[in-house]
Amino acid sequence: MNRTGACPRVLIVGAGLAGTATAIRLLHFARRPLEIVLLERRPDYRSAGVAYHRDGNPWDYVFNIQAGRMSVFREDVLDFISWANQEADRRDWPQHWAGHTFTEQGPAPRRIFQDYLADRLAEARRQSCPGVVLVEADGEALDMDACGRGYEVTVGGLSATGLDSVRSGPLPDTKVVGADHVVLATGLELKDPPFAVEVSGHPSFVRNPYSAAGIRTLSQLPPESTVAIVGSVLSAYDSAGLLLRNGHTGQIRLISQSGTIFRTYPGTHEHGVLRLPRPEALMEPYRDREEFLARGRAAWRAACSMVRERHPGIASVIVPERVAKAWEPYLPEIIERIPDEELRLLLDEFATTIAALRVGAVEYTMAVIEHAMRSPEGSVELVVGKVRAITPTRSGRLLVSVAGQHGGHGVEADLVVSNFGRESDYAKVGQPLWRALLGKSIATPHARTGRGLEVDACGTLLDADGRPVGPVSAIGVLREGDEIVRHGRTGAFAFNLAAIKNHSVSVAAHVTEQLELRQEGLSDIAALHPHYRSYASNPEEADRAALEEAVVLEVRRLATRERRKREALDSRLTASILSMGGLPALPAVVSRPDRLMRAVVNRVAVERLNDVSVTPRQLRRQLGIGNVDNPEG
Questions:
Q1: What is the pLDDT of residues 188-235, one digit of tens each?
Q2: I need a labelling partner for 144 at 20 to 30 A (CA). Which of 117, 271, 582, 620 fits?
Q3: Can you tell me the distance from the alpha carbon of 523 to that of 576, in angstroms, rounded to the nearest whole number?
Q4: β-bridge partners, 144
């Protein structure tokens, strides 16, 4: 829906990590006038989401991974570290952190990430091209309808400065906002666990430990109280660690169906990518669950042994992470052999185990937990079993009924904490927006996994027949199922910061490309030439050097945050493409070969920026961006 004919509008629904990262990239990538509306229903979640907002993250909640892996720009490896040490406003920080020098392998409090994202968004706004504007709006997206070549979004409680072309909505206190493209970045959705129906409003039950109320309950709990925490994943360690650091002496029980405990990263741990042979045993036809799991365990043991033998310098606790990452390119082919229902059951049963193999946690988080579990006077105990029900007792305490391998038993506690428990099946999400989108077939649950939504390679929503529903893109956790089957990313790696970095690049590039083509009257290029990305695959040798020069210039433009330098690179890129005169592989019927070549070069550049077969530091070296040993270079 082109409102003015001159300045298209992109509406991003959700201003947490995913939405903010996409807005930053749009501000960088847009070369023509563009209005970017960043809509958030919870002001305290802006530039943060549930993972980083200040009210739900006390100062002792640190990133699970080292601070050196937290840059929002994958091509600028230590940007977060640089910001934390040189730019962050520390006036309100507690003494422990106010004088702290952040290092690549060290910890950092999660709550400061909100300030980091807000600063980088402000920087991107200052460095955007003329006519590219950002509007930060409060309100909740409730509904969407296709309109012309875009969408109209019904927003409740809309509050924004400088937002025009808005009309009254169908319900009181609603407005209708037209957009040429909508990006859905709504983040994690809360799951209603069936075992907690009887205690959902009980004062001794904490449903969301990352809420202000949840933190307040944990912080004010009498130190001798007994606590049961459902789950043993990293969010459970946050809750237990908060209690222990506050001097809690009462018993804390971590109740886990799998009994999984996460690994602690060595102090010198660095991210790395290994090349391992295909696990051929897992490429055989799927026969049944037990037989497949037996093959999987044997292949896993063999791969771990190979890593230990060939790479003796890798710490033993890091070997599983290296193998899990090395297997990602092969997982789509393996997954393709597993029937849908079996795949869903395997993902449900082994989600925690997979996550623990793929990622660890920093010592700052784990040390206090491990001490309390292993020392004779320790107060933390792991209880293995599945929670069947949580019920109130006459004394006012809560009883957790647990089914274990050797029968059932009860755990009574003064306080029960349930981990976040995200809802991955969008057919079960209760938010009005998702009920509307699924009801109108604008969004379709992911068929193979039941996790997230159906999207294409660019993140565009697909209907039940696999056709794009129009200019609507998804980013982050909404793409979990697709990330699993398309890229082999499992556990939180299907939607964590690493995935969102890549999503933000590809979606922002796709959106700006499509809007530019539409403005030039060339919006049918993709329809006429759906495989145009492959036109750059086999150019004649005479054109290869010119094409490579263009791609390198586009990579540098996409990775450059300073407007003046981006504009200079853009001018050089335009001249380079015009000098090429197209590629022999281009169809003869293309009316604007230079414009199609621009799109081809952009797609190749995006693929290079999103290359996960190398580490970010290796990527920087591979792309020739600055000096890898000096992130400022």
A1: 998 888 899 999 889 999 999 999 999 999 999 999 999 999 987 788
A2: 117
A3: 23
A4: 153
